[in-house]
Automatic annotation (TrEMBL):
Coiled coil: none annotated. It comes from the Eukaryota. Residues 56-241 form the SsuA/THI5-like domain. Pfam families: NMT1. This is SsuA/THI5-like domain-containing protein. It comes from Podospora fimiseda.
Amino acid sequence: MHIKQVHLLGGLFLTVPTLAALKIAAALNVIEYAPLLVTNQDYFNNTATIINGGVASIVSDTSVDLAANAETQALRQYRNNPSLRVIWNVAQVPYRIVANKKSKISTLSDLKGKKIGTIQGTSAGYFIEHYLLTAANLKPSDYKIISGSDCRASPCGSNTFPSMLSKGTIDAIGFWEPTIEVAIQTLGEQNVVVFQNRTAYREIYNLHSTAEKLRDPKKRKEIVQFLRQLIKAQKIFDEDPTKVYSRVSKAVNVGVPLLQKVWPVHDWKGGIPGDLLDVLEEEDKYVAKVDNRAAASRDKLKNLIDPTVLEEALKEGF
Ligand SMILES: *[C@@H]1O[C@H](CO)[C@@H](O)[C@H](O)[C@H]1NC(C)=O
Ligand SMILES: *[C@@H]1O[C@H](CO)[C@@H](O)[C@H](O)[C@H]1NC(C)=O
């Protein structure tokens, strides 16, 4: 039993039962994770512990109750950890490609034969492959992928994508924010062309738990409570973001003006996307190739999504 001592007037202590603290894993340097931080601070008395990690943490460490990550990493982990569950969407982000006009690029098809900065095996790696194939009919053999690092404020280090783009080491970048916006600002808006197509790809950054955690009635109750508060926090992110800019800025080390600029690329409406299973089925073919395995069936992937936690959270009303 977890207990908490409440300090009463006159120095008396009253011992009351409380819920066990939740442990949450997320990459602490991405904008997408920020609603979890704000939920913990504003609605959870900071009682949850948020550690740096993601779905890899929740499947390897049973003390972790919740984990946030893009759909790509969930697919990588689900293969060997079939108890992983998506319970809610934190953010959807239609990634962008920024290309240098000097490389004679004006349409997506012009990326044929070009060098594109991204990281294979990540959501950005899939974004490039899927977007170029479905919207421009370009196969991976039609362009060259070059690895690099992110940059969240100029001046960017020499091995970062924005520096590589301005030096001409690469012709375009396909990556998450704010690196794309930093590259646009580094080269100057008039010198770049930006491609974005939400139908072709948007990152689906979800909150996950495991079947074991969700079977434990006490733990499940805490998770439902957390989700109820997260829904409130995301409403602020969506409708009134000026309230959170400065905190998010400090948390992920992205200056407020840059954060404001990339905010519209992020969709905080939450829920569980209606086409999530379709996206997972299509994307698992890519993840399977990167991880050198067979793609999972739609039937198997169906179990990765558990809408019942959200149903319970909504039942209590707001
Ligand atoms: C936060 O603290 C207040 C006051 O101590 C308490 O009433 C509330 O139930 C707590 N909320 C959570 C989620 O622990
Ligand atoms: C966006 O991508 C889809 C494929 O996913 C494609 O059918 C559509 O034509 C693209 N739209 C534009 C404006 O390129």
